């Protein structure tokens, strides 16, 4: 069997097109331009790349982008003051504080100081609770993108066996909750899980979100299963030349694609969907704020 490739890049382009359509209507019919504020503390190179990309795509769909770049030694009080200002700014409909934060800042405190209605990351404790009880909430972008691809591929995932490998607050836990809300039967696996290969072999849906390059080999995958690879890992690629690197997922793509029914590639799978869902969440927040 050779798996269908789930093209996240093309799917994300469609989502952005829909978002741009909503933005146009909000502007023309209501005179409102959705605005997304992104806060970056420090100069982590990967975070800088993400933040630049978020800002660029925000503008491309017609929304306002407000970037706040703060020094690495910014005090918690100053960061909280900025969030308070953004919470009270009617032009700002979504607020994202790029993680990880420098060690002297309390991540939970900072995230929970964001107005839950503007929490486009869906990380605020009240959004986590709303999602956990199946109520309307802001949904974390990466798991939302994964769910959209699964729904698109399967129609319904009701009754399917799903395994989520990884239990992070950003991906693993909300992913499991979303799958459960769609009536999948869900197992969360992690580094202490016994007989992980057998747990994965029972799954119709595998979501890998551990951050370990090519950790899941093809012989763990059930024939015909759908594999969603959240990992983005940079590894050495001496075959491309000295000092060269390449991106790989948490799944060993070549071997998994021989048994899976469908699989997301890395790059070009889950990655592009994350920012597209951030833009969609910002429009959602804007619509809810304006009735
Ligand atoms: N760092 C890595 N992923 C994310 C994300 O989805 N949101 C935020 N705020 N920071 C991140």
Automatic annotation (TrEMBL):
Tetrahydrofolate dehydrogenase/cyclohydrolase catalytic domain location: 6-121
CDD domains in alphabetical order: NAD_bind_m-THF_DH_Cyclohyd (cd01080)
Listed Pfam families: THF_DHG_CYH, THF_DHG_CYH_C
Name of the protein in question: Bifunctional protein FolD
Binding site for NADP(+): 166-168, 232
Annotated EC: 1.5.1.5, 3.5.4.9
InterPro entries, alphabetized: Aminoacid_DH-like_N_sf (IPR046346), NAD(P)-bd_dom_sf (IPR036291), THF_DH/CycHdrlase (IPR000672), THF_DH/CycHdrlase_cat_dom (IPR020630), THF_DH/CycHdrlase_CS (IPR020867), THF_DH/CycHdrlase_NAD-bd_dom (IPR020631)
Residues annotated as domain Tetrahydrofolate dehydrogenase/cyclohydrolase NAD(P)-binding: 140-288
Taxonomic placement: Bacteria, Pseudomonadati, Pseudomonadota, Alphaproteobacteria, Rhodobacterales
BP GO annotations: L-histidine biosynthetic process; methionine biosynthetic process; purine nucleotide biosynthetic process; tetrahydrofolate interconversion
Matches recorded under NCBIfam families: PRK10792.1 (NF008058), PRK14186.1 (NF010783), PRK14188.1 (NF010785)
Family according to the record: Belongs to the tetrahydrofolate dehydrogenase/cyclohydrolase family.
Superkingdom of the source species: Bacteria
Physiological role: Catalyzes the oxidation of 5,10-methylenetetrahydrofolate to 5,10-methenyltetrahydrofolate and then the hydrolysis of 5,10-methenyltetrahydrofolate to 10-formyltetrahydrofolate.
A single MF term (Gene Ontology): methylenetetrahydrofolate dehydrogenase (NADP+) activity
Recorded catalytic activity of this chain's protein: (6R)-5,10-methylene-5,6,7,8-tetrahydrofolate + NADP(+) = (6R)-5,10-methenyltetrahydrofolate + NADPH; (6R)-5,10-methenyltetrahydrofolate + H2O = (6R)-10-formyltetrahydrofolate + H(+)
UniProt keywords, alphabetically: Amino-acid biosynthesis, Histidine biosynthesis, Hydrolase, Methionine biosynthesis, Multifunctional enzyme, NADP, One-carbon metabolism, Oxidoreductase, Purine biosynthesis
Annotated pathway: One-carbon metabolism; tetrahydrofolate interconversion
Database matches in HAMAP family: THF_DHG_CYH (MF_01576)
Record text on subunit structure and interactions: Homodimer.
